[in-house]
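2024-03-11 09:14:02 DEBUG pipeline.ingest accepted 1 chain
2024-03-11 09:14:02 DEBUG pipeline.ingest length=182
2024-03-11 09:14:03 DEBUG pipeline.predict start
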Amino acid sequence: MKASYKKWILLGAFGLLVAAGAVALWKVTPGGRGAKPAGEQPIAENPDHELKALAMELEKKPGHTPVLMRMAQIEREKGKLEDAAQHLREAVNSDPASVDARLELGRVLYERGDVGGAIAETQKILESDPKHVDALYNLGAIYANLGDSQRARSYWSKAVEVGRNADGGKKAREALAKLGGS
């Protein structure tokens, strides 16, 4: 009985090795899941394909903030700021508490030249969280770019005060140094 038991163990192990080899081979051969035909980019490297896949995902979960934010990021990278803003507005409308979506919307609006919209969206973050370091930093940057160094200094000083070790606080400290503040 022991010989028979060993035989089945060896056959099982051999079967697992064959299956593993077949899976590995399938992944690297044309038509396999891991292989891409010549000239075809993987979805992650092809923004248009990724946008289509995300749109299908959005049909399943309308208003899904992470999907909308990824779509906005792709559109922004493609230089389509109006489309990016549209996705971000949809994210904010479906989840008004999403600070990340609102912060990104403010950034995109600023890039589009809608300074008033950028300020308004970023201010809404501070209404619910007056110590949001990135919102404070962004408002400081907007006002610095508008030439209002007093307001820029005020927002950046607050960002340093509330988030000394956060990225926004560090960037604010550097910006204050360039502005001549401390």
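2024-03-11 09:14:41 DEBUG pipeline.report DSSP finds nine helices and no strands in the chain.
2024-03-11 09:14:41 DEBUG pipeline.predict end
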